[in-house]
Amino acid sequence: MRSNVNFNTKIIHNCQTEKEAGAIVQSIVPAVAYSFDCTTDAQHATKCASEIHYGRYGNETTKQLEQKIASLEEADDALAVSSGMAAISIALLSQLKSGDHVLVTKDLYGGTYSFLTKIASRYNIEYDYIDCTDTNTIEQHIKDNTKVIFIETPSNPTLTILDIEAISHVAKKHHLKVIIDNTFMSPYLQRPLTLGADIIVHSATKYLNGHGDVVAGLICGSNEDIAFMRQNIMGELGQNLNAWDAFLILRGIKTLSVRMDRHCENAKAVFEYLKNHPLVKNVYFPGDENHPQKETIEKQMADSGAVVSFEIDGDSKMAEALLNHLKLIIISFSLGDPETLIQHPASMTHSAIPVEELKEFNLTESLIRLSVGLEAAEDIINDLDQAFDKVKEEFRK
Ligand SMILES: Cc1ncc(COP(=O)(O)O)c(C=O)c1O
Q1: Residue 173, phi then psi, degrees to nearest 5
Q2: Which of 136, 313, 328, 343 is the most buried (most CB within 10 A)?
Q3: Omega before 154 cis (within 30°)?
Q4: Which family is annotated (predicted)?
């Protein structure tokens, strides 16, 4: 583990422990079963979370990924799982039991909302969606049975910024744990554990892998929390990540900083274009110089990230028309890929949320989420421009 080098060096060299026949790149170990010299060793391995004994509880290649992300997020340990939603559900279930209550930021990924409302509620886990931009609001909603504050910053899709340090401070005062979804940032741009959060979850499907060919999740936290999640939730529910996908994410992470730099640069150019377009009402982007939470952004984020959301000056028909006229930009549910991806949250990623609640979350029918990719910024903007021109003609604006 290298701790005295820069982050850009760490993402390449940290936890490169496999040196089979001098190979620089880690091996893919497909083995599910492992051999033991005697029954005592085998019995010991089943009790010790850090020892690999059966594929559902861990694997040599995924272990390298776990060590890598733990080192980058400055965590004691990490767990690699089968999806971002597996990471979120495992993290929440590890801290909550029947009768407990969780405070949740009011605008967040639709899958997290669905998990809490449709699944966690069946096990008598209570939740409240609140505005976490104000720590007083958080304090007012803490109940005797509150155990966790779950936040996502920047949020999906309205890019609300939450002050991780201030929220963690409130949580500590009330003996609560803070779980944070760091998917939009990656450890290159934001390291929540250094600001007081307890557990980080990632959809590694997005920027960490970065190539749109793996579904995976990562959880970072204390040795105790990660051991419990590995043994009692991931292992028992079978939410493990396979070796091949772990290898691909390890490969993806090596280019994380160069990709994120280009993603951010392109997003800034797209933001400048959108904010001056007459058919655009509001643009949500952490790189906005006039962002209301600029101070918090500067404190906790190294750069803007590359998701830009905007409201078209019209209804959902107009929003959908814009998407349908694009030629280069792809309509898709994901984000963080090399390709620029666009989607309509109200009818796609967040369609599980009832319309009245969508409005409360500021998620209108005219909102569009753009994950700015790695293409030439000029080409992304030209594509948006030709689509806006067609919408203008169609709707005679
Ligand atoms: C912020 C955020 N968290 C979690 C997830 C879920 O990740 P996955 O699709 O890997 O389960 C997503 C998916 O889009 C997301 O945007």
Answers
A1: -60, -35
A2: 343
A3: yes
A4: Belongs to the trans-sulfuration enzymes family.
- Would residue 112 count as lying in a domain? yes
155 and 271 fall within a common domain: no
**Tens-digit pLDDT string for the chain (397 aa):** 667 899 999 999 988 765 667 888 889 999 999 999 999 999 888 887 677 889 999 999 999 999 999 999 999 999 999 999 999 999 999 999 999 999 999 888 989 999 999 999 999 999 999 999 999 999 999 999 999 999 999 999 999 999 999 999 999 999 999 999 999 999 999 999 999 999 999 999 999 999 999 999 999 999 999 999 999 999 999 999 999 999 999 999 999 999 999 999 999 999 999 999 999 999 999 999 999 999 999 999 999 999 999 999 999 999 999 999 999 999 999 999 999 999 999 999 888 888 888 877 778 999 999 999 999 999 999 999 999 999 999 997 6
Decide: 329 and 341 in contact? Cβ < 8 Å.
Answer: yes
Asked if residue 142 lies in contact with residue 128, where contact means CB atoms within 8 angstroms, the answer is: no
- Alpha-carbon 6 to chain mean position: 23
Q: Does one domain contain both 282 and 195?
A: no
| Residue 68 bears catalytic tag | no
Active site residue 262: no
Q: How many residues does the chain have?
A: 397
Q: Is 217 in the pocket of ligand 1 (CB under 6 A)?
A: yes
Q: Which residues contact 224 (CB under 8 A, 6 or more apart)?
A: none
Residue 109 CB less than 6 A away from ligand 1: yes
Q: Is 109 a catalytic residue?
A: yes
Rounded Cα distance, 172 and 205, in Å: 31
How far apart are alpha carbons 41 and 138 in whole angstroms?
48
Q: Are 351 and 219 within one domain? A: no
CATH code at position 59: 3.40.640.10
Name the 3-class secondary structure at 163. Answer: coil
Domain count for the chain, please give it: 2
CA-closest residue to ligand 1 atom 11: 84
Q: Which of 106, 177, 191, 206 is catalytic?
A: 206
- In the set 77, 100, 107, 181, the catalytic residue is 181
Looking at the fold, whether 154 and 246 belong to one and the same domain comes out as yes
CA of 392 to the centre of ligand 1 (A): 33
Q: What is the DSSP string of 26-59?
A: PPP---SB---SSHHHHHHHHH-TTS--BTTT--
